[in-house]
Design a protein that fits this description.
Guanine Nucleotide Dissociation Inhibitor, domain 1, 5-stranded parallel sheet, binds flavin-adenine dinucleotide, 22 strands
Length: 458
């Protein structure tokens, strides 16, 4: 009957065709069971989004790098036939503190004491992180104390100089994408622990989370996964309700599409998962958790030049600034052997994404050009093109890079983050116990949720 709502059957219904959902679906398919992926938007990939504004120039509006210990991502890229290339790092970083712009070496000389203090704090975080377990951080001996204070307040109490404190704020916001007063100290330690690296993760180099990129763009990964799944991925299908019994689910989408299955994997960031209506309603603690895990705020701006002129001047295109609007930047060019234009990626994170990110584009871009020129000289003031990627306005993401609970979130509600509720299993990078917040975490969570769903199939 024309106009009648469509109805589908599957063993496992997956909500969301981001990396986590697609990996989960493929795992179900590989186990000989039938998955069905329902994706709200008109494309797959979620927080992975590659654009090609000029032929052969791939800009990652979303996820861009993997690190040396992102083994599952490296294996996935290899399996899908996608090459990797190293992040360009040679040269000096430019620093802007206390009203002065200094090149790396000069900054390190002038601020040796401040940097030593920052290092002392990072080592302290390392020691504290060793007492936190990845799977149950709320059981850490000092969990109660650390989840009641914010990272910002703890940093304030460490006796840092203004420059040291400022540097630590910038680098931490570079990971969390929210001001440090919005995340508890325990929450920061959870980030350190799930990434399996020391607190160097917060240092200027991001401690190995950003060492390699994908030739031809990260977007190929979800696209190729979706191609393997074929018609099992349905776009433009925002899930509105999930009715669940002991071993059955009925999922309905805006527009009337209905799917019945035995298990459902919800592969959405917690806030978005909390916007679905569940019948029967989920336990209060799960809902309270999703009320307390806001999406962070990050905004990328790519400045494109005829060539990477900064390299000849001995810069690596990285800036660290307490003025902004970008607090950090880096070299975002195509692989060296393919040449191509010069591309600097400027990051607006946390408050900068919220404030300058809302400015009219012309005003923001003028401020960015002026800032890049302060660091990399007058040529930086005249990019041929600026391309920006804002995420707050995207209905099915509503912020990035990921989500962290606020103070007391871990100790009161952390247990509800990934614990299945009958046939409902939770994926998405936020639920991962390895590299949570990153693509690696999305894969990890997708595999875990698929295994949980498969184990519960008759
Ligand atoms: C700007 C930016 C930069 C980043 N940089 C990096 C990086 O360099 N390295 C790295 O490892 N990670 C990075 N990340 C993080 C990385 O992108 C994420 O960790 C990962 O892609 C998350 O995948 P996911 O499947 O868990 O969630 P998502 O990608 O958010 O997927 C969820 C999917 O669900 C869909 N959806 C939402 N609501 C519904 C609904 N009601 N019904 C149906 N579908 C729905 C969404 O459209 C989306 O496709 C970055 C992210 C951003 C945005």
């Amino acid at each position: 009957m024309p106009g009648a709502p469509s109805s589908y059957e599957a063993d496992v219904i997956i909500v969301g065709a981001g990396l986590s959902g697609l990996v989960a679906a493929r795992e179900v398919m590989r186990a000989g069971r039938e998955p069905l992926v329902l994706e709200a938007s008109d494309r797959v990939g979620g927080r992975i989004l590659t654009e090609e504004p000029l032929p052969g120039v791939f800009l990652e509006l979303g996820a861009q790098w993997i690190g040396d210990t992102h083994h599952q991502m490296a294996a996935l890229a290899n399996e899908l036939g996608i090459g990797l290339y190293p992040q360009f790092e040679e040269g000096e970083t430019s620093y802007e503190f206390g009203g002065r712009v200094l090149r790396g070496e000069a900054f390190h000389r002038a601020h040796a004491q401040d940097l030593a203090e920052v290092d002392r704090v990072l080592r302290q975080l390392d020691a504290m992180a060793q007492t936190v377990t990845v799977t149950e951080p709320w059981l850490a001996p000092k969990a109660d104390e650390w989840d009641r204070i914010t990272v910002g307040h703890w940093y304030d109490a460490q006796g840092l100089s203004p420059t040291g404190r400022s540097l630590l704020e910038i680098c931490t916001v570079g990971i969390l994408a929210v001001p440090t007063v919005e995340v508890s100290l325990l929450g920061l330690l959870v980030n350190v622990v799930t990434c399996g690296v020391t607190a160097d993760l917060l240092s200027e180099s991001e401690g190995g989370a950003q060492t390699q990129r994908f030739v031809g763009g990260t977007g190929q990964i979800p696209q190729r996964l979706a191609a393997e799944l074929g018609e099992r991925v349905m776009l433009n299908s925002p899930v509105l309700t999930i009715d669940h019994g002991a071993d059955s689910v009925t999922v309905t989408c805006r527009g009337g599409l209905m799917a019945r299955g035995r298990q459902v994997v919800v592969a959405l960031a917690p806030t978005l998962a909390g916007r679905i209506m569940y019948d029967p309603p989920l336990p209060g603690t799960r809902d309270q958790l999703t009320q307390r895990m806001p999406q962070a705020s990050a905004h990328k701006a790519f400045a494109i030049y005829d060539e990477p002129f900064w390299r000849a001047d001995g810069f690596n295109a990285q800036l660290i600034s307490e003025i902004g609007p970008a607090r950090m930047s880096n070299d975002s060019c195509m692989p060296e052997d393919t040449g191509g234009p010069g591309i600097i990626l400027a990051f607006l994170e946390g408050e900068n994404a919220r404030v300058e990110g809302r400015w009219p584009a012309e005003q923001r871009q003028e401020a960015l050009r002026a800032e890049l020129a302060r660091h990399f000289g007058p040529r930086a003031a005249a990019p041929e093109l600026i391309v920006e990627g804002a995420w707050v306005d995207r209905e099915w993401t509503r912020g990035c890079y990921n989500a962290n609970p606020g103070p007391c979130g871990w100790i009161h509600f952390g247990h509800a983050l990934a614990t299945p509720i009958g046939p409902i299993k939770w994926a998405a990078t936020e639920t991962a116990t390895r590299w949570s917040g990153y693509m690696e975490g999305a894969v990890d969570a997708g595999l875990r949720a698929a295994a949980e769903a498969l184990a519960d199939l008759p």
